[in-house]
Amino acid sequence: MRAQFVLSEIGVGLRRNLTMTFAVIVSVALSLALFGGSLLMSDQVSTMKGYWYDKVNVSIFLCNKSDAASDPNCAKGAVTEDQKKRIKSDLDKMPVVDSVTYETQDQAYKHYKEQFGDSPLAASLTPDQMQESYRIKLKDPEKYQVIATAFDGREGVQSVQDQKGILDSLFTMLNLMNRAALGVMALMLIVALLLIVNTVRVSAFSRRRETGIMRLVGASGFYIQAPFIAEAAVAGLIGGSLACTFLVVGRYFTIDHGMALSQKLTLINFVGWDAVLTKLPLILAASVLIPALAAFVALRKYLKV
After folding, report:
1. Whole-model pTM?
2. How far is CA 50 from CA 134, 169, 291, in A?
3. What are phi and psi of 77, to 5 degrees?
4. What DSSP character marks residue 175?
5. How many CA atoms lie within 13 A of 12 on its CB side?
6. Mind listing the pLDDT tens digit for each residue in 28-68?
7. E strand or H helix that includes residue 133
8. b (16+ CB within 10 A) / e for 167-197
9. How far apart are CA 220 and CA 77, in angstroms?
10. How many angstroms separate the CA atoms of 84 and 91, rounded?
11. What pLDDT is stored for residue 231 in this prediction?
12. What is the DSSP string of 34-93?
């Protein structure tokens, strides 16, 4: 009987405040969708870091004849065979080095043509203008500075470049985007909480006569508060369900089908469905607990029981 009364009161409350309930549902849905999206973005960045950092190389570019006239690091001329042998020997002795690959000028020219063949500059380049290089795979990508300290400024070395630095700039941008999404999510969540508080306040005011009678007949505080808290929880659960739907549909159409980014950007290892599915219970739990807690706090102020 009591459960039936609470359920009937929930239906009455949702119908009386239909507009505000709809606003609560939309706000909760958008804020939790952004929250879930931010969690997935964080997982995506971590996945990409693990994938790409394992493949980054440190490149030691060697001086060629054209560098001798234009680059201060190559003022003593092009790299000699003895210098190349010493560089290779020193690299082989370093414990941080996993493997070393030598790239000739012809190989560098071929790779450049493959990547930038449509560039106007490609037509004017010749193999002798390209730089020989050593491509070093590190056991730990964080140990780049060890290579830079040992070979930067050395005779025959034009420059030492770390591909990880390029990736760090990309990941910094992705993290900034993720933080911006979290900021918008926090703003939307605050709006949702304010709407919940106002909805509960209006609902409590519109039913002040019923609650007064319930107090007179000795109803407990929890029994009086339960319908209001349940209304907020139900509205939040609907919003959370919509947020879960947004995430699933968004993942399906942006990565698997529709935009099909997994087929167009084959070099990116996208997060899988397991990452999405593990976020859904968290979103649903938050969609119930946060509105219920907000309603409970609001009732302590606006409903004297």
Report:
1. 0.64
2. 23, 15, 37
3. 105, 180
4. H
5. 14
6. 888 888 888 888 888 887 777 766 666 667 888 898 887 77
7. strand 133-138
8. beeebeebeeebeebbeebeebbebbbebbb
9. 92
10. 11
11. 82
12. HHHHHHHHHHHHHHHHHHHHTT-EEEEEEP-HHHHHH-GGGTT-SPPHHHHHHHHHHHHH
